[in-house]
Specification:
- The chain is globular.
- It has a 6-stranded mixed β-sheet with strand order 1-2-3-5-7-10, sandwiched between helices. A 4-stranded mixed β-sheet has the order 4-6-8-9.
- The relative contact order is 0.14.
- Strand 2, helix 1 and strand 3 form a beta-alpha-beta unit.
- With 271 residues, the chain is of the alpha/beta class.
- It has one domain: 2-enoyl-CoA Hydratase, Chain A, domain 1.
- It contains 11 helices and 10 strands.
Length: 271
């Protein structure tokens, strides 16, 4: 794929029958409104190019152009501004773009392929939810994962409940949702959420090794069966994101202050 995107780097590897898209941002590496709008165009372009099977495709892989960060999740400065001004309409727009993006990843971009998250850096909040939306997660040993929303009295509203409660046992799912703890990749591999971890080798090498060792036909049909047994309807994601927007509108000053502290910490790391 030769098209240039502002918020993504996209490459097609015909020898691996794979598209690799990397999240590319400036400042805080998160999901901006602009990035989510462009992701919708990326989805449409991808479907247009590969739906007729002219080009062979088996895998769609997400990664990051940031060495130490997969994605920090939602755009907290954007949330903070619109919560303060009670601009529910703009938060709903953002939330709807999020759940559409998450559903398209979960649905493998409406193509007969496997989706893989290649997580080489930290995945927090919506970044963690994005990774969970994929069929398969490959993660570097040093990567950290967290759902920090309860630190400012919110809950993860962009897929965490839907994916955790389908992928692992309920006790572990609730622990991750409720605790706000930071988990390393090995810990989540033991819980069954991450498929494989890697250490010294490059992420791309770990990815291609995984693809070569595993039968596509088996894996594709395996995950297709899981989605049939544990179906996820768009309306479920839609309903939860709307609950999240309502919860944002009910946030109190102390909670907003905690959000502001996290925003300031993110900004310092981005400098």
């Amino acid at each position: 794929m030769k098209k240039n995107y502002k918020n993504f780097e996209v490459a097609y590897y015909p020898e691996h029958e794979m598209v690799l898209w990397r999240i590319k941002t400036t400042g805080i590496p998160n999901f901006s409104l602009e990035g989510l709008k462009e992701f919708k165009l990326f989805y449409e372009d991808l479907y247009m190019m590969f739906s007729d099977k002219k080009y062979p495709l088996k895998y769609i892989v997400s990664a990051s152009s940031h060495d130490d960060v997969y994605n920090m999740g939602g755009d907290l400065p954007y949330f903070y501004k619109n919560i303060q001004t009670k601009n529910k309409k703009r938060l709903l727009e953002y939330a709807n773009l999020c759940f559409e993006a998450i559903y398209n990843i979960h649905n493998s971009f409406s193509l007969p392929v496997l989706s893989i998250a290649l997580v080489e850096g930290n995945a927090y909040g919506g970044g963690f939810e994005c990774a969970m939306a994929h069929d398969i997660i490959l993660a570097k040993d040093s990567a950290k994962f967290c759902l920090p929303e309860n630190k400012f009295n919110l809950f993860p509203g962009m897929g965490a409940y839907s994916f955790l409660c389908r992928k692992i046992n309920l006790t572990s799912a609730i622990e991750i949702l409720y605790s706000g703890n930071v988990y390393d990749a090995k810990n989540l591999e033991q819980k069954g959420l991450i498929n494989t971890t890697f250490n010294k080798k490059s992420g791309f090498k770990a990815l291609t090794d995984y693809i070569e060792k595993n039968s596509f036909n088996f894996m594709y049909n395996h995950y297709k069966c899981l989605k049939r047994v544990f179906p996820l309807q768009k309306k479920e994601l839609f309903d939860i994101t709307n609950m999240w927007v309502d919860a944002c509108m009910d946030m109190e000053k102390d909670s907003l202050r905690r959000m502001e502290l996290i925003i300031n910490a993110q900004l310092r790391k981005a400098l």
